Amino acid sequence: MTVIASLFSLPYSGMFAVVNALPAWWLAHLVLLARPLPKEAAVANPDAPLEWYPVGRILLWIVVFATIITATTLLMMGTDAATIQNTIRKGWSDVLESTGLTLNDSTLDALVMIAPIGAEMAAVAMLTLNLWLAAKIAATSGRLHRPWPDLKNTTLPTVMIAALLAAIVCCFSGGLPGILAQVVTAGLSMAYALTGFAVLHTLTLAMKSRPLWLGCAYAVVAGFAWALLAVALLGLADAVFGLRERYLRSRPPPLPKS
Known about the structure:
Elements (H helix, E strand, L loop, with lengths): L1 H6 L2 H22 L2 E3 L2 H6 L5 E3 L2 H23 L3 H19 L5 H36 L18 H12 L4 H29 L6 H14 L3 H15 L1 H8 L8
Antiparallel strand pairs: 1-2
Helix pairs in contact: 2-4, 4-6, 4-8, 5-6, 6-8, 7-8, 8-10
């Protein structure tokens, strides 16, 4: 941090800490956070005497950091909606001018509107991917001091449903609060999209062509951004109706090995 501050500036080093150093440190701390199981649970499961910090809560922290990063970036552009939108519009105009593309005003307005949403979704994806890669590298080197979690069992805290509904309602307030509510909505939607993929991995357990179906699902999401909304709705449906729990209850027990 001292080197960055000396090379650039103190505000830039502070921004670097908020965007990179602080999230990385805190998320790594949470990954390795554990507590002893209660005596009854420890007796029932002697091979796992520790309760590790849940992956779903780590995902919630990722949304929090992504929202802080996106909101800070927007507030650096201005303190009101009009200034922020004009700054984003100028940025898009400069990009389009450098590439030689021309767009009509309605398309440019749409790009200005979705820019904060896209930035939040990209921040959630970036933090999640970075944490997963860091954990994979640590696990491969034998330095990950916790068992690798079963990611298809990832669940979000129930309070996030209420938070998502409140954020959606606030999106219609307009002005700066409306923009920030859209950012929060995008972040929570991305979190439910990630749990939606976990639901897909669970509901396809019995399929013989499971890799093909999962590969097609990921390909559709990569090719059509709107498909991510369907995956988020699947994750939200699982949170409300317990789709994975019902599916696992309905599966017959495995046959005993001979």
